[in-house]
Write a structure and sequence with these properties.
Helix content is about 45%, strand content about 10%. By secondary structure, the chain is mainly α. The longest helix is centred in the first third of the chain and has 18 residues. Strands 1-3-2 form a three-stranded antiparallel beta sheet.
Length: about 180
């Protein structure tokens, strides 16, 4: 029986599992969204959410504790500078798991795991408000039958220049036509 066995070992040794979860948490913090299997995402949620809660208090001790788990300086800096101010009022539930179907190769259940406050489409933020421009097709050309029935427009008059017309002489015609030998 599985009484009180809540940790999903994911078929890995303890050191491999800790390293994998650390790398996945670093990717999630840096990219705000990752694609993974559902089992790994559920295991990652229990790993990363306490770290985000710890990042709400910006002290040297909390930074060192988070660095002990993540082992990546840039991810720790990103977590404390950008992620923690966005989730300051939130009491928990910093991540969202969206199922996307099964993987083609081995039929594993796949999902997208993302930080909740960074999905602009779900928040209805500025990305949804901006209006995109459309490209339209050029109007279709009309048939010859319809073109003949309409009255043709008068040609536009060109502005006349006060220059004298150039007369063709034998010299100019000889220069323009090369001689054949």
């Amino acid at each position: 029986m599985r009484h009180l066995r809540v940790i999903n070992h994911l078929g890995r040794t303890s050191s491999h599992r800790k390293a994998m979860l650390s790398n996945m948490a670093t990717s999630l913090i840096l990219h705000k969204r990752i694609t993974t299997t559902t089992a790994k995402a559920k295991a990652l949620r229990t790993f990363v959410e306490p770290l985000i809660t710890k990042s709400k208090e910006d002290s040297t001790h909390s930074r060192r504790v988070v660095f002990g788990y993540l082992k990546d300086k840039t991810a720790v800096a990103e977590l404390f500078r950008e992620v923690s101010p966005k989730v300051a009022e939130r009491q928990g539930g910093y991540t969202r798991i969206l199922k996307i179907g099964n993987r083609i190769g081995d039929n594993a259940d796949m999902c997208v795991m993302e930080l909740v406050d960074y999905n602009e489409a779900m928040l209805g933020g500025e990305a949804a408000k901006t209006k995109t421009t459309r490209r339209r097709r050029a109007p279709k050309k009309k048939d010859d039958a319809t073109a003949e029935t309409k009255t043709p427009k008068a040609p536009k008059a060109k502005a006349e220049k006060s220059e004298k017309p150039v007369e063709k002489t034998e010299e100019t015609s000889e220069k323009s036509v090369p001689e054949k030998k």
